[in-house]
Specification:
- Helix content is 38%, strand content 22%.
- 43% of the residues are buried.
- The chain has a single domain (10-271), classed as Ribokinase (UDP-N-acetylmuramoyl-L-alanine:D-glutamate ligase, 3-Layer(aba) Sandwich).
- Strand 10 and strand 11 (206-212) form a beta hairpin.
- The chain is an alpha/beta fold.
- Bound molecules: 3-hydroxy-5-(hydroxymethyl)-2-methylisonicotinaldehyde (PXL).
- Residues 16, 18, 23-24, 47, 50-52, 86, 115, 220, 222-223 line the site of 3-hydroxy-5-(hydroxymethyl)-2-methylisonicotinaldehyde.
Length: 286
């Protein structure tokens, strides 16, 4: 007899599928799978390539999402984590909240990557209503992973690329926490030749994980980081350790991508490094 409930860990990932450009599901599925975890995708849209390219095909999946996951309810599925990324509309955010209501148990890590913008610029498709809805979703996160731009949008603090000192990062993180998010990782903060991740935990403690800044900015870096982070948290790492491993993996992927002279919009060539992620869950099972 087959068991529907497996001992193997499962992460539900709610994100778009972009066929080219290495972001969202095309990043999460291989990374989470390489870590030995089953990646269960809920697509929000299908794109030929991500929106960082001048032209792309976009097929919205909002109308189909609840029918899609209603079949999962019949299968009695539950998840070790629910990880959400790029969400294209206000209605889609409400659907994601409904998904969390239906599928999150007491032990489920809710990981929200509030994809909204970068370098002080908000993505063109985001309305103020959209931002308000993302604030509501962020409040449900066990782990929230905004970049500095997104952290500023979520808290209403004006963005300034010089916000990189501890007192300012603490103030932003405290605002996010008082709005409801539990642990917060502000990612990709640029500081004198380094890229820093500021970790603010639910008990009010904080730490910084820094890596050297190499080359130019590349599409999908945040998605690679969040997929590794989700995998490591589900495998039982403490938050600091999970952030360190995610930061190390992104750094290795940037190095290899630079060597291959891949155009920045094509994302990180992480495929060549997937072996580094193996051994995630096997250790616990074998
Ligand atoms: O990497 C974030 C992201 C995800 N999905 C789509 C995007 C982007 C960033 O541009 O366009 C479709």
């Amino acid at each position: 007899m087959y068991l529907t409930i497996s001992k193997q860990k499962k992460i539900a990932v709610i994100n778009d599928f972009s066929g080219f450009g290495r972001c969202s599901l095309s990043v999460s599925i291989p990374i989470i799978s390489a870590a030995g975890i089953q990646c269960c995708a809920v697509p929000t849209a299908v794109l030929s390539n991500h929106t960082g390219y001048e032209d792309y095909f976009f097929d919205d999946y909002t109308d189909k999402m609840s029918v899609y996951y209603s079949k999962w309810e019949k299968l009695n599925l539950s998840f070790d984590a629910i990880y959400t990324g790029f969400l294209g509309s206000v209605r889609q955010i409400a659907i994601v909240e409904d998904f969390i209501d239906r599928f999150a148990g007491n032990e489920t890590h809710i990981i929200v990557d509030p994809v909204m913008g970068d370098n002080g610029r908000i993505y063109a498709t985001l309305t103020s209503e959209h931002c308000r809805s993302l604030r509501r979703l962020a409040a449900r996160a066990d782990v929230l992973t905004p970049n500095l731009t997104e952290a500023c949008i979520l808290t209403g603090i004006p963005y300034n690329e010089n916000i990189c000192e501890i007192p300012e990062l603490l103030m932003i993180s405290e605002k996010l926490r008082s709005a409801g998010s539990r642990d917060i990782v502000i990612t990709g903060i640029k500081k004198s030749g380094s890229i820093c991740n500021f970790i603010y935990k639910r008990d009010g403690s904080y730490s910084v994980v820094a890596a050297p800044s190499i080359g130019c900015e590349r599409a999908g870096t945040g998605d690679v980081f969040a997929a590794v982070l989700a995998s490591r948290l589900v495998c039982g790492d403490a938050l600091e350790e999970a952030v360190e491993r995610s930061s190390d993996f992104v750094l290795d992927a940037i190095r290899i991508t630079e060597k291959l002279e891949t155009p920045p919009q094509d994302g990180l060539c992480f495929e060549l490094l997937l072996r580094e992620l193996c051994g995630g869950q096997q250790g616990a099972l074998l």
